Amino acid sequence: MKLVLLGTGTPNAEPWASFPAYAVIHSGNVFLFDCGAGIVRACTSMFYKGVNELKPQNLTHLFLTHMHSDHTAGLAELILIPWVLERSDPLHVYGPAGVSEMAEHLLAAYRIDTDYRNDGPQPSNPTGHHVLPQIVTEGTVYNKNSVRIEAMRGSHGELESYAYRIEADGKRIVISGDTAPLESMKTFAEDADILVHEAEYAAGLQERSEGWQKYHQSIHTMSYDLAEIINGARPALTITTHRILHLNYYGESPVSMEEVRRREDALLAEIQSRTSLPVKNGYDQNIYEI
Ligand SMILES: [Zn+2]
Ligand SMILES: [Zn+2]
Questions:
Q1: How far is the CA of 215 from the centre of ligand 2 (A)?
Q2: How far is the CA of 209 from the centre of ligand 2 (A)?
Q3: What residues sit around ligand 2, an ion, with C-beta below 5 angstroms?
Q4: What is the chain's mean pLDDT, rounded?
Q5: How close is the Cα of 81 to the center of ligand 2, in Å?
Q6: Distance 13 CA to ligand 2 centre (A)
Q7: Residue 110 is part of which domain span?
Q8: What integer pLDDT is reported at residue 58 of this predicted model?
Q9: Nearest ligand to the C-alpha of residue 10?
Q10: With DSSP H G I counted as helix, E B as strand and the rest as coil, what are the percentages for the chain, rounded to 5?
């Protein structure tokens, strides 16, 4: 199995990290997790870097962790652009309640484009922009071609959210999605080969207002809490993503990359101070093979 980090960013629209998206590849089949804006170009960039599976025709299966816009704003792209590039298979979209309506409304919004491509002079196939939505609940959501994908409910405020575990050839990858720390993650990610988990910089949070502190604590996972999850689940490797650094991103001037790196290193150090198991910060275009 191969894991490609397509986007490791957050709603902060950091220029150095694309919106959240990950690809898991097994035997030529591509499984996308979350759909941040720019996902199709993120895939074609990796195709041009030698990940042959990530060409537009192969982008046919998407699993959404939740409906927040940083994780879903690329859905119109993923429905329409690969179709223009001659994908003839429909897009299977697995996600929480609301996923069917989102796809339906996006297709309605783009009707001028799809009608013209279907009925105008451009050669096109009649099926590649179709969407097959499937509502996710806890348990097995996909079991085909020796790949099994299971969902576990996350804790992200009032929002329905899921973590996914992908298993093939006795290997396991877990993707947390956005979630507050979960006791159940220790079992769900037990002995995983890779745990991709969101993380929040604890020292940075102390600088925020009381309201923001309360909000972030209730819906995201603090570095120290992630360390506790790692100690319980004992994955062979943990990769942080969706790192919330609590910078003042859009003040009078941009934050310096030195400060970004300093906080990322400090966040990693916070985790490593409470666990001796392997942890790395994940970055866009990282590839892991297991
Ligand atoms: Zn998010
Ligand atoms: Zn979220």
A1: 12
A2: 20
A3: 68, 178
A4: 97
A5: 25
A6: 14
A7: 2-289
A8: 98
A9: 1
A10: 35, 25, 40
Average pLDDT over residues 233-240: 98
Determine contact, residues 90/128, Cβ cutoff 8 Å: yes
For the entire predicted model, the pTM comes to: 0.97
Q: How far is CA 110 from CA 76, 84, 88, 158, 247, in A?
A: 8, 13, 18, 30, 36
Q: Which ligand has the shortest distance to the CA of 244?
A: 1
Residue 120 has pLDDT above 90, yes or no: no
Residue 122 predicted with pLDDT over 90: no
Q: What average pLDDT score do residues 129-152 get?
A: 97
For residue 204, the CA-to-ligand 2 centroid distance in Å is 19
Report whether pLDDT(227) > 90: yes
Whole-number pLDDT of residue 207: 87
Give the CATH number of the domain where residue 74 resides. Answer: 3.60.15.10
**Cα 116 to averaged position of ligand 1 atoms, centre (Å):** 34
Q: Report CA(105)–ligand 1 centroid distance (Å).
A: 22
Cα(6) to ligand 1 centroid in Å equals 14
Q: What is the DSSP letter of 222?
A: B
Q: Are strands 171-175 and 131-135 parallel, antiparallel or unpaired?
A: unpaired
Summarize the confidence of residues 245-260 as an average pLDDT: 94
Distance from the CA of 199 to the center of ligand 2, in angstroms? 12
Q: Mean pLDDT lowest for which of 20-34, 78-92, 116-130?
A: 116-130
H/E stretch holding 242 reads strand 238-244
Bridge partners of residue 268, in order along the sequence: none
The tokens for 69 are 């816009």
> Which residues lie at CB < 5 A from ion ligand 1?
68, 70, 178
Total number of domains constituting the chain: 1
Give which of 261, 279, 189 is closest to 232, Cα–Cα: 189
**263 confidence band (pLDDT: 50, 70, 90):** very high
Quickly state the pLDDT bin for 247 (edges 50, 70, 90).
very high
Query: Rounded to the nearest whole angstrom, what is the distance from the C-alpha of residue 179 to the centroid of ligand 1?
Result: 9
